Amino acid sequence: MLKFGIQNGLNVARAGYSEDQILTACLLADRTGYDSIFYMDHTNVPQWKNAVVLDPWVMLSSIAAVTNHVELGTCVTDAIRRHPSNIALAAITLDRVSKGRAILGIGAGEAQNLKEFCIPFDKPVSKWEEQIQVIKKLYSSSPDNTVDFEGKYYKLESACLQASSIRKPHPPIYMASGGKRTLKLTGKYGDGWLPIGYTPELFEDHKKQIEASMNENNRTQEEKDNFQMALDIDVYFSDDAEESWARMKEAVKVSLFKPEILRVHELKDIEGFDFVKYFTEYSMSNQSWIVKMREAATKIPDAIARSSTGVGTPDDIIPIFERFIKAGVNHFVIRFWGKNYFGSIDKFASQVIPYFKEQNK
Q1: Assigned architecture for domain 3-245+309-359
Q2: Distance between the two ends of the chain, CA-based, in angstroms?
Q3: How far is CA 193 from CA 227, 254, 272, in A?
Q4: Lowest-confidence range among 139-148, 172-181, 284-293?
Q5: Which of 117-131, 153-167, 288-302, 337-351 shows the lowest mean pLDDT across its residues?
Q6: Which residue ranges make up each domain of the chain?
Q7: Residue 99 pLDDT more than 90?
Q8: pTM of whole model > 0.90?
Q9: Is the pLDDT of residue 284 over 60?
Q10: Beta carbons of 35 and 70 less than 8 angstroms apart
Q11: Which among 154, 178, 216, 298 would be 20 to 30 A from 263, CA to CA?
């Protein structure tokens, strides 16, 4: 089943929408046929001083109260800032208040949410694997079924949570991954995959790596069939696609800029950028790394960058989504950009979703 959702992410934070406006947008999405609503988990975005950045778990609980159909998830949280027991309980609580609609979207974290708060960003992938293991253990725990865990970073001794989820066996875990090691972990532990900043070619390449990991880890056929190959994708409705693309292409290239894009598209002339230092030292307030990244990202060819984003009229946008469906996406999580946020939600629901629902009958 092909799914479509909206994300309350940087698009909503940058616009400075109030809580009431966000809830109204989510109510609209619920009533117009979307399948999911996701909320970003950032601490701040100081490059946009007027942005409003809110806690995702509190907002998702509020969204649960005004919606009836959509699944609700984080896009994505990182347990580096929280003990995994807090994440597990938050996901279970959201599932209960939403009557079984919760999704846990989770990643290994990033420096931009940690550095200024002096939270260590060391061994994030190793910690992430243990976090997922702990969360899965706690999902099935109870006072009569306490659990133990002995890891390098986390430890449980006869631990339990005292609430069970409505969704069985537990709220699904969508893992945000993009490197060889994290993709393997996604295939081993995940119920879904939720990346951002992808071309169809890169999505297909990474999907194959996840599927190989699922086979290596003897995942059941049911787990494979139900696995959600999701994608966080940007959409900008415009009557003049070329003009809009000219204004936004730099930002799109920055969002795409990662070593895997260079590898898959054989962009050897851009090689040499220190991605390791960038991902471990970059923070929103570090302008020097932002400048370096933008300068390097502009070298990504327009044709490659444009394949990652829906820009223009519905007729312009549909082929972009078709390419991603062919690459293996079965759940789109859309960030709508532009001044008419409510209109974009409605236009996509009335002019794009019906096209794909008809195609997938």
Answers
A1: Alpha-Beta Barrel (3.20)
A2: 9
A3: 8, 22, 29
A4: 284-293
A5: 288-302
A6: 3-245+309-359
A7: yes
A8: yes
A9: no
A10: yes
A11: 216
Give the pLDDT confidence score for residue 271 in this predicted structure: 62
pLDDT surpassing 90 at residue 358? no
For residue 175, which phi and psi values (nearest 5 degrees)?
-100, 130
Specify whether the CB–CB gap between 148 and 158 falls below 8 A. Answer: yes
Residues for the chain: how many in total? 361
Burial label for 239, CB within 10 Å (0-12, 13-18, 19+), is exposed
Give ∠ CA 133-137-140 in degrees, rounded to 5: 150
Q: How far is CA 82 from the centre of its chain?
A: 18
